[in-house]
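Thread: Newbie trying to understand structure tokens

Hi all, I'm a second-year student working on a class project, and my supervisor (Dr. K.) asked me to get a predicted structure for one chain before our next meeting. I've only ever worked with sequences, so writing a 3D structure as a token string is new to me. If someone could post the tokens and maybe explain what I'm looking at, I'd be very grateful. Here's the chain:
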Amino acid sequence: MRIAISGTHCVGKTRLIDDLIIRYPEYQSMKEVYYELLDEEDGAFALEPTIDNMLKQLDASIEQLEQQDMEKNIIFDRCPLDFIAYAMHAAELDSIDIHCHEISERFPQVIEILNQLDLIVFLPMTEQSPVFYAEENPEYRKAVDKYFKRLYRDDELYLFPNYNQPKIVEIFGSPQERVEKMSTYL
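---
Reply by user tm_fold:
Sure, no problem. This is what the structure looks like when written as tokens:
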């Protein structure tokens, strides 16, 4: 099964992936493209969440999925939709219509590449199961989470085909509960 774990930063995506790999050793995981870009550019890749940086990460995410198209048991830390959610936030801050930016030119390619996934697991921020993380800007994390919810719950940008591929599930709870919930899909 080809799986992507998606959601705003610091919601437990990497922890879930690590826990799944321990429980299902036949799976391999792919590093988040942000860290790959940092490695490639010797740390020169900017941390700033600009729309242009999100475009760069979006392209890297699409490329990562394309390069791994023959792998059957793989879990991706993020997918192209993650970078679209972050770009939506950056665009709004800069008063840019996302449909008028170069990022929207990637939407057909994103739709096509999402078809290569079997499952996208969205980890939303919830009050019932908060993930506590000391960070500089918790309001930013909450703001970006709203864009993820608009993409996954409302399909605001019409990026999901109507024939339910990939399957999208929302999972929350403690780390152990998340792994148990995932076991019903694996």
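A couple of things are worth pointing out once you decode it. The helical segments are 13-23, 33-40, 51-67, 80-93, 107-114, 138-154, 175-183. The two ends are 7 Å apart (CA to CA). Feel free to ask follow-ups in this thread.
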